[in-house]
Amino acid sequence: MTVEVKVEETQMAEVVVALKEPKKIVEGKVVEEDVKAMELVDDSKPKTVQKSSSYKEESNFFSDLKELEKKALSDLKSKLEEAILGNTLFEKDESKKKEKPLAENVEKEKEEKEAAETDKTDQKEETQHKEDEKEIAGEEEEKKPDVGVEAKSNEIDKEISLWGIPLLPSRGTEGTDVILLKFLRAREFKVNDAFEMLRKTLKWRKEVNIDSVLDEDLGADLTSAANMNGIDREGHPVCYNIFGVFDSEALYQKAFGTEVKRIQFLRWRCQLMEKGIQKLDLKPGGVSSLLQINDLKNSPGPSKKELRIATKQAVDMLQDNYPELVAKNIFINVPFWYYALNALLSPFLTQRTKSKFVVARPAKVTETLLKYIPVEEIPVNYGGFKRENDIEFSGQDVDATDLILKAGSTETIEISALEVGNTLVWNLTVLGWEVYYKEEFVPSDEGSYTIIVQKGKKIGSQEGPVRNSFRNNEPGKIILTIENTSSKKKRVLYRYKTNKGSF
Fold this sequence. Notes:
Elements: E1 24-26, E2 29-31, E3 47-48, H1 67-85, H2 93-127, H3 133-159, E4 161-162, E5 165-166, H4 176-186, H5 191-208, E6 226-231, E7 237-242, H6 249-256, H7 259-278, E8 290-295, H8 305-321, E9 326-332, H9 336-340, H10 342-345, H11 351-354, E10 357-359, H12 365-369, E11 401-405, E12 410-417, E13 423-431, E14 435-443, E15 451-459, E16 466-471, E17 476-483, E18 490-499
Parallel strand pairs: 7-8, 8-9, 9-10
Antiparallel strand pairs: 1-2, 3-11, 4-5, 6-7, 11-18, 12-17, 13-16, 13-18, 14-15, 14-17
Helix pairs in contact: 1-4, 1-5, 4-5, 6-7
């Protein structure tokens, strides 16, 4: 018997969902891809990098909800409480109808038995003026079954949970509302639909044993296809999905060659999603969703049958079982075929899901990512400053500076180096590049010679960020020169620091 494993609404699905034109959707509205932020700058003075665009998750505080949303949440909690305590959450609808009369009869028999026992006790009290110690002990024994029922309820409390959050509303766990609101939002606050979605998700997780997936070895060779790396401006963990690795026929066959391999691959992607969820703070006010970056450069096209099958399985799983766990879905290096598939797959996605999509052409990758992720957190292969095991810069210990380079103008960046024997290190990137760039060390002593650190050259659009360093043996300054020979403004981002002594 084959168990069909599905994945998250924003991982494999992003391969195939597209817009008809090379535009992007931001905050639910379609806008042109070109960024207009630079045109709003009145001067070319350097300034600390500001957010080009911001987005925040919808509030999970009960007080911030609309009245209809509050009522829907309360109704869902009541419905869930009844299902958990009644141990009916995983029952099929047919069995519920059959077992309900039986349950009612049992309850009725229990009530009649308790009533008979009460009458018997009353008769005893009428014939006896006081009870002896034996009768008192007997009454205490009769109370023990109630304690057993309470213990059973506590056991159920611990058993029914999702992503480590207990779901029994009466327990008052802080994150329960956050989880339930995700399902409500995914179903437009329709209580019955949200409850059924939650029930099916819990049933699916139980059937395919998703809670154990974190401890499974599902193929280290696939780690090049996706990884968690850094956080965005709002604190969301960022997941990078690299679909170009499947251009390798060997890896493609390993992931999609057979039905068993496709299921294994989807389970591995599910594992990555679960790892990402572990980084979230599923509490009101906490960061409770991820940012997905989907790199389609060199990705196999729609002619690949196995990929289409895996994608369809992923679309189903992601939308059904991981609602509202992705804040934004950013597609970069989007090829032509991506747009052609929109008419086929877009109807299968909810408007809420599509409203989270942002699409960037190859020339706009860095510019688009900067709207959501600080340049210090963007990997160097996407035009940012982040490098693995970076010993020169650690995290965001130095904020980047933003400089607008007007058309036909030249700007210089000076890094003071008055103390001898220190090592200066710097990062620099230009959006769109196509500039003339050089680096020099100019001694303070006018009698000394200027040292060429980087010979002047024209840097094209395919160049990555600059990283260089210089150890000064005399007082002076580093001068970085950027000349914009084009007819368009350029945006320069840079940072530098001085490390005492050499590395």
